[in-house]
Amino acid sequence: MTLDKRNLYRMPWSMNDNPIAWLEVSDICNLHCEGCYRQHMTGHKTLEEVKEEVLFFKRWRNPDNVSIAGGEPLIYPHILELVSFIAQQGIKPVILTNACALKPDLLHQLKVAGLAGFTIHIDSHQGRPGWENKTEGQLNELRQYYADMIAAEKGLYVIFNQTVYPSTFQQIPDVMAWGSQNIDRVQGLVFITYRTATVDDTTAVDQNSQQVDLSKLSYSRDSFDEKFVTSPEVHDKLKECCPEYEASAYLGGSISHSSFKWLIGTTIGVKGKPYGSLDKRAMEVVQAGHHWFNGTYLAYTSTSKIGGLVFLLWPWDKGVRQALGHRITDMFSHPKRFFKGVYVQSISIIQAPDILEDGRTDMCDSCPDITYYQGKLVNSCRMDEYRLYGGFINIVEHQGKSAVQPKQPAEQPEQPVEQVEH
Ligand code: SF4
Predict the structure, then answer these.
(1) Does 394 sit in the ligand 1 pocket, CB within 6 Å?
(2) Please, what is the end-to-end C-alpha distance for the chain in angstroms?
(3) Ligand 1 pocket member 380 (CB < 6 A)
């Protein structure tokens, strides 16, 4: 079915009321993923610096969680103190990691410090020692290792994300099937579509109209001949292998009315047997309800073992009613499944920035992964433009054509806001 924004809930997130605060503690990493937006320029931040950023987010972002990112946060020397500090602020600390440095003893210490969960990035373009040249399906063994380790610790949630390249697009069903088999211990999957700027056919200038050397950016390539994968294509691929999956919410583009920058769905099922997905009404109830009772919107549920409670949403939600019907039918045909727990699992798709034909860049509307940079909030995927050139660059020529659009207002540097009060 073609995606239609009228059938989806537009997430109510905004710049100042957003469930996610993206905190970068370091730009040092122990892997070199092909799709990474960050390069090593400055090293670890001090604990005082990152605490200051947490307080900035608390004041200006109203987050439900702080996503501790990098670089690689598990090699940040003050990670335990930082997790503890965030938890003391009444915000959920979540670590975004490649998990190379994750060991059971560190995992336990992080949980004691107050960690809520992990987002673990595993894909086949990371050059991961010992896992070179593996397919996404073969990497499920590694995903399983970390999912089991975290489940054994109990009380932490885990989401697995991966970058989707044109070459790995067809392997999406292998990861989706693995996720369904592990719905009792994996709370979500995220598919991020790969994007790069190509040096051979793009010219860009900085805020002083000086041409910039695009090859300095970690997300530039000399050339890229393949067609980028889009969110709707990933959505269709997911539906091909799991017809019960359906997106229920979205974030559009900052420029293009037709782009689906974030697509968010939630499947309901037992291990290995999806029954259906939440519809847009349930998503609206969840977001509004969480804001009403907790004062913040919600990005990640802290548990997937909602059990039959999810079916309480049936009066509002067509998707829940369908899933409940499938659950009842399934229990009659497979009585043993009556004793199997019901879980929910979020399945999200992110379509990273696109350079449009006229040279402008279509970003995610209400960017959830905006981060702190020198007193400003900056889209984390493009922060290196600030670090290298003092602000977003402007494309003046793309694919051999002059960009018709001069500088766009959203890409002018902002003034720093006042300092955080303690
Ligand atoms: S615009 Fe924001 S949410 Fe979208 S890819 Fe960039 S940082 Fe992530």
Answers:
(1) no
(2) 51
(3) yes
pLDDT digits (tens, 9 = 90+) for 310-329: 888 888 899 999 999 999 99
Going by CA atoms, what residue is nearest to atom 6 of ligand 1? 381
Q: What is the spatial distance between Cα 210 and Cα 248, in angstroms, rounded to a whole number?
A: 44
Mean pLDDT of 405-415: 48
Q: Work out the mean pLDDT of the chain and round it to a whole number.
A: 91
Q: Is the CB of 353 under 6 A from ligand 1?
A: yes
Residue 355 domain-assigned (yes or no)? yes
Domain that holds residue 313: 5-195+228-406
pLDDT in tens, 145-192: 999 999 999 999 999 999 999 999 999 999 999 999 999 999 999 999
The residue with tokens 């990861």 is 175
Enter the tokens of residue 387. 């670090």
Amino acid at 11: M
Is 245 domain-assigned?
A: yes
**Pairing mode, strands 197-198 and 220-221:** parallel
Q: Is residue 221 part of a domain?
A: no
Q: How far is the CA of 149 from the centre of ligand 1 (A)?
A: 30
Evaluate whether 266 touches 277 at the Cβ level (below 8 Å): yes
Give the model's pLDDT for residue 305. Answer: 57
Classify residue 414: in a domain, yes or no: no
* pLDDT of 276 strictly over 60: yes
- Cis peptide leading into 325, omega within 30 of 0? no
In which element (H, E) is residue 347 found? strand 343-351
DSSP string covering 141-181: HHHHHHHHHHHHH-S-EEEEEEEE-TTTGGGHHHHHHHHHH
pTM comes to 0.93
Residue among 255, 337, 266 nearest 299 (CA): 266
* Total count of domains within the chain: 1
Query: CB–CB of 244/250 below 8 Å?
Result: no
Q: Is 369 in the pocket of ligand 1 (CB under 6 A)?
A: yes
**CATH code for the domain in which residue 344 is found:** 3.20.20
Going by alpha carbons, the residue nearest to atom 8 of ligand 1 is 369
